[in-house]
Automatic annotation (TrEMBL):
Organism in which the protein naturally occurs: Priestia aryabhattai (Bacillus aryabhattai)
Molecular function terms from GO: hydrolase activity, acting on carbon-nitrogen (but not peptide) bonds
Name by which UniProt lists this protein: Peptidoglycan/xylan/chitin deacetylase (PgdA/CDA1 family)
GO biological process assignments: carbohydrate metabolic process
Superkingdom of source: Bacteria
NodB homology domain segment(s): 41-227
Pfam families: Polysacc_deac_1 (PF01522)
Length: 236
């Protein structure tokens, strides 16, 4: 019995080191994990989990109206389903980046499975848009011990602001206030253009869009502009 518990404890420790401990150390101390940019009066508004056939085009309309740019961290299999939306993103000056091929956590993936998730998604982007993606953000921001090496040559991006816009428990007014509070030079915001992800509310992007209708004019009024990740990190 004692031996069983020692083995169990050992297995749990290995799992913790592979997932949460590696994630915490990388996100806090590793210089190649991008948390923030440095450009004055610029931020990067980014969207995870799309493209969605209804919500993503509405977001594109809104960004066109306010002459702002966004970065879309797409799910590869959804990109395959909606290639015209990816091409519209590129045509309108936005950036397409990697989430995973399917929306799975790096905590559940072996290093090789993780590599496949990242590179398969990158392949979809290259095939559909003829552009090479530069940035990768893992679903839920989860990293495992192999994430940095498996993500190469892509730059791993986290965020300065995440706003619980995936749940309708967050009201539009609360979301607008949260967004306003987090505006600073070089900020990287994460929002979501798809509510079909596990743990999200299907209609939550409607609230995100309503909040952006109010937030984007405010941003401009404050002398700020949303640009792509490439522009924020001087990669273009
Ligand atoms: Zn996601």
């Amino acid at each position: 019995m004692t031996r069983f518990f020692i083995v169990l404890l050992f297995v749990l420790m290995v799992i913790c080191v592979y997932t949460i401990i590696s994630q915490t150390l990388y996100r806090r101390y590793h210089s190649s994990v991008i948390i923030k940019g440095e450009k004055k009066h610029k931020i990067a508004i980014t969207f995870d989990d799309g493209p969605h056939p209804v919500y993503t085009p509405k977001i594109l309309d809104l960004f066109k109206l306010h002459e702002m740019k966004a970065t879309f961290f797409i799910v590869g299999e959804l990109g395959e389903k909606h290639p015209s939306i990816l091409n519209r993103m590129i045509d309108e000056g936005h950036e397409v980046a990697i989430h995973h091929h399917r929306h799975v956590s790096a905590w559940t993936q072996t290093p090789w499975q993780l590599k496949r998730q990242i590179h398969q998604c990158a392949q979809v982007i290259k095939k559909v848009t003829n552009q090479k993606p530069l940035f990768y953000r893992p679903p839920w921001g989860h990293l495992n011990m192999s994430s940095l090496s498996m993500a190469k040559p892509y730059h791993l991006v986290i965020w300065t602001g995440i706003f619980q816009d995936w749940t309708l428990k967050t009201t539009k007014t609360a979301l607008v206030q949260k967004l306003m509070r987090k505006v600073e030079d070089g900020a990287i915001f994460v929002l979501h253009d798809n509510g079909d992800t596990p743990g999200a509310d299907e209609k939550a992007p409607e609230m995100t869009i309503a909040a952006l209708e109010e937030f984007l004019p405010y941003l401009k009024q404050q002398g700020y502009e949303s640009i792509t990740m490439q522009q924020l990190m001087n990669q273009s």
